[in-house]
Amino acid sequence: MTVLLNGQDFGVGTWREHLPYNNVVSIAQVGSKTYAATEFSLYSIDEEENIERLNKINSISELSIKIIQENKSQNALVIGYESGNIDIIKNDNVINLSSILISNIVGDKTIYGMHNDGQFAYLACGFGIVVLDVKKEEVKDTYILGTGGAQLKINDITIDDTYIYAASDDGIYKANKTSSFLSDFTMWSKDNSIPNSNGEFSIIHLFNNTIYTNLSVNGVNNDTIYYNDGAWNNATETFGKDYYSIEDKGNDIVTANSTGLNVINSSNQIIETYSYYKGAVAIRPSQIIWDGNYFWVGDRESGATKMLNDWVVTNYFVSGPFTNDVFQMSFLNDLLWVATGRVDGTAWNSNYNIRGMYIYDQYDWDMVNERTDPAMQLTDTLFDFVQVTIDPKDENHVFASSFHGGIIEILDKSMVNHFTFYNSSLQTSIIHGGGAVKVAGSTFDKDGNFWVANSFVNEPLSVYTADGTWMSFNCGSASSNMVCTDLMIDKNYNYIWMAVKNVGLLVYDFNDTPTDNTDDQYKLIVSGEGNGNLPSKVINTIVEDKEGEIWIGTEAGPAVLYNVSAIFDGGEFDVQQVLIEQDGVIQLLLETQNIIEIVVDGGDRKWFGTDGGGLFLMSADGTKLIHDFNEDNSPLFSNNILALTMNDNTGELYIGTDKGIMGYKGEATEGAENLDDLYVYPNPVRPDYVGVIAINGFMDESDVKITDASGNLVYSTVSKGGQAIWNGNNLQGERVKSGIYYCFAVSRTSNQKGFTKAATKILFIN
User: Fold this and answer.
1) How far is CA 414 from CA 321, 322, 340, 367, 417, in A?
2) CB-CB contact of 459 with 474 (8 Å)
3) What CATH number did the domain enclosing 71 receive?
4) pLDDT value at position 496?
5) What is the number of alpha carbons within 13 Å of residue 3 lying toward its C-beta?
6) Which domain does 757 fall in, by range?
7) Residue 131: is its pLDDT beyond 90?
8) What band does 9 get if pLDDT is binned at 50, 70 and 90?
9) In the predicted model, what is the mean pLDDT of residues 641-666?
């Protein structure tokens, strides 16, 4: 049985996460709930098999969870993070303790292991041991164990009637737990009787008066368990497996290891072994616990799994992308495509990422790569997919660009064509050789022709026409053998815009004759007045807004080309930087920011994703700041934005960061062609709802008025694109009373029926 959690619903002005949930790194039970921690988030499963996501947006403090463990004394869950931060969950409340995080300790603060004893949690940290009083919700003590008081990385801790034992990167240490001076390193002694006494020990566990531990080599779990029931011995039956956890199981212990699940009895014999779920899917556990009836497996690929044996299995799989990799995103008709490739350095060196593409259909996540498509296994050149371009006529028909292996054509999540130098006009890299065909940018024109930016070649622009013809184009010596990345075609002139790294912006006019280059012309927009006046030669993104203006994201902020027609008619085509007033000072818009991505929303407003500066929303002309989101003032996972794309129907902005993908539902959506399909969310508005009410389905900038049942006006606004929002208050700022309210809309623009009107109802329940 598999329990699948579907997509999340969320309101305007709120956030949701799109994180991986398949790799569970730690698992624990508190009362009737089982908690599964991934590297990025946490989810719980109750007795009725209800699943709740707990993440940075709605509850816990951070991403990057390292370990979770139950504190039975306080019926609490203790969460340890890579940063040293700590959360405690008691009675469904999250208490944050940041003492380690904000301490003046220099070095590794990661919480690697944990042992709960009474009301205390002993935390194994990168510098030593921290004792946490879970009842009082405070740090009680800190132990630095290294010689001379030096920091020593502790990986795990256990406690018996007499001693505290610490598995470290320099052997096993112990100290009498009744000592009053455990913060003094001289109270700790190293156990030199264990084999490899100077080795790295990653796990230590007490069971039935026996200490179990295992050796780690360069951070990798070794294949031998040692046990001490008076003297150290080698549990020889355990040889040949890498061990990740050792936990109690009645009168035995249960281990998570590289081959699955083993139960080992008091004679150190393996008495149970499970390697597959239902004989088909390999068990890849990071931790296994026993609840008295079932094994709970924290699996590195299958999420949290409850199993009685190989065949009686329930998998609690929360849908998400397979990893948090993201380089570029595209969206069309409720389908989000994510290119997961990676490149390094200014020359875009290969990273050999083979994860391919992820797809989200608003309910579930899927992927297209070597694991899912046998056709992609037939070549070893398909890695570092850095762009997915969706066919505007069919969201299931896409082209994926590999920055090594050319382009693949995908239909219904299966590769149907692979284009490279031998069957297309694409060319191999002059610099890299070895048959490398490096493609980063691509787009469709209005006639369905597919255009491609081919890097490090003499003819960097290619077209694959709607009738199946390939052709490449020379774009001048300045564009040859360069990294050619972003590619865009404007709607008014049908010009091709291509970013040429460290050169500028190429504008190519193919004169609507894609296979006849005799009437083509091109021009470079570069730095310097009269030549384009770009603020930087490094261009990351190009986008056209609803007024036909071209917005360019550079390493030195954004720039705008207002006069597109002048490029080829001899007029002035210098770009302009937007002037804004901030704190009484006139300055250039985001001039110190490296603009990675620009997205235009349904209200023609501009979203700017930056490298290190977070996320900004500006007014249509760029002069007014609407939102400034960063890690400190919002749930934003990271200030390093890698990719953005917009769901114009709902207003959700998909945000790809270096720590994963998330969504923010903005106030604007794409305007409708008519007013036939107005809808309100939520409706009815219930007493516990505290967000804004969204009315969607308007034509661009429609006049919106809301009245009570007697016709009294309570609110008026103008829609941002196709959506208007209302906070539920009347003109006096008071919450409206229970009842039915009427929303009336009048378009400001005409269609075939002229100026149109429409109305809908909103029910308030207070």
Assistant:
1) 18, 18, 17, 10, 9
2) yes
3) 2.130.10.10
4) 98
5) 16
6) 679-764
7) yes
8) low
9) 96
